[in-house]
């Protein structure tokens, strides 16, 4: 498990640095204000910072568990975890493919409850639909209404 922890931490650090590198080519700022590379740069810094912190923790602890931390004996401690992980990737892929046809808000409204149920299989469908619907609505209001970001519209006009 220590090798996996190290590799995953290094992956996040390198992915974050790659995001920062690519975002710089998009332009972080210009005469009119923030450029299209600002948000990817901030995301890259966040990802790289998290990866660096995990990597530092791994180096400091020598790969051992931190005091009070319990480590699973295997990578997939739950028997259904591999199936849920693959299904999660499939649902996210379908959401991405659905956006041009259903729009951003409707794709989120359908996909987010499914993702919540995959992440927390013991939760109720009512909680998943309420959480997913709320998240989709808040994302739509934040980006489309408040920030004026043009999001793909679906057949219902939002």
Please, could you describe this protein's structure?
By secondary structure, the protein is an all-alpha fold. Helices cover 69% and strands 3% of the residues. The protein contains five helices and two strands. Strands 1-2 form a two-stranded antiparallel sheet. A hairpin with a 2-residue loop joins strand 1 and strand 2 (33-34). Helix 1 runs antiparallel to helix 2 (38-61) and helix 4 (104-119) packs antiparallel against helix 5. The longest helix is centred in the first third of the chain and has 25 residues, at 2-26. The radius of gyration is 19 Å and the shape is flat. The mean pLDDT is 86.
Q: How do the SSEs run, as a string of H and E?
A: HEEHHHH
Rough outline: flat
Provide the gyration radius in Å.
19 Å
The share of residues in helices is 55-70%
- What structural category do the secondary elements indicate? mainly alpha
Euclidean distance between termini CA atoms: 45 Å
Q: Give the low-confidence spans.
A: none
Report the average pLDDT across residues.
86
Major sheet: arrangement of strands: 1-2
**Helix count from the secondary structure assignment:** 5
**β-strand amount:** under 5%
Number of strands: 2
How many strands, what sense, and barrel or not for the largest sheet? 2 strands, antiparallel
Write the layout of secondary structure elements.
Blueprint: H1 2-26, E1 29-30, E2 33-34, H2 38-61, H3 81-102, H4 104-119, H5 125-146
Antiparallel strand pairs: 1-2
